[in-house]
Design a protein that fits this description.
Elements: E1 8-13, H1 22-35, E2 39-44, H2 48-51, H3 58-61, E3 64-68, H4 73-77, E4 82-85, H5 95-102, E5 107-110, H6 115-118, E6 126-128, H7 133-145, H8 147-165, H9 167-182
Parallel strand pairs: 1-2, 1-4, 2-3, 4-5, 5-6
Length: 188
């Protein structure tokens, strides 16, 4: 996609549905581009036709890269420096936030659904209020300007997912619930 190795890549994975809050991410990205050079916004799951729904200034149009639907999402995420999820409506725990955390990416997410249970503000990422492009841009800017902190957040996010959300951990939790319902002690 012509992204220089020196650019900071802010990434998003999801659809263009209104509840995903893409308009706020685009607004935040424009704020960031006025302060920082060398930024790209990669939107996985969104194609060029989807972008026609949004007002995008000419100033940032060529810095936004819609890559459409992809089966190799982990490969796409591997090129991200920062993962941003600007959701505005509850939808459960956002899978792509969990996947980005599992990959060790620093995450900025809004306080919707279970995202603030996974991303603990200022410990393993940053949680911002929904529908707030200023807060979203400030959080992303903090990570751009503090790469060591961003790295720590990414490592902590990955550890949290591995420790609390692996298939083995989830299976043990479900098994424990079944034993509790049956009134039996959990198997070791």
């Amino acid at each position: 996609y012509g992204i220089s190795e020196y650019e900071k890549v802010i990434g998003y994975v999801g659809s263009a549905l209104p509840r995903k809050g893409i308009t706020y991410l685009i607004e935040a990205f424009e704020i960031l581009c006025k302060k920082h050079k060398g930024l790209s916004l990669v939107l996985v799951g969104i194609d060029a036709d989807d972008l026609k729904k949004y007002h995008i200034s000419n100033y940032i149009r060529d810095k936004i890269i819609p890559v459409g639907f992809r089966k190799d999402v982990s490969n796409c995420m591997a090129c991200f420096d920062i993962f941003a999820f600007p959701g505005i409506a509850d939808e459960g725990l956002t899978g792509t936030v969990r996947e980005a955390a599992a990959m060790g990416l620093p995450v900025v997410t809004t306080d919707v659904a279970g995202n603030s249970e996974l991303i603990i503000n200022n410990q393993n990422g940053i949680v911002v209020p929904k529908k707030n492009p200023d807060a979203l841009s400030a959080a992303i800017e903090y990570l751009i300007e503090n790469p060591l902190k961003a790295e720590v957040f990414g490592k902590n996010a990955r550890k949290f997912v591995v420790d609390n959300m692996s298939n083995e951990v989830r299976a043990r939790k479900v098994e424990s619930i079944y034993y509790e319902i049956l009134g039996k002690p959990s198997e070791p």
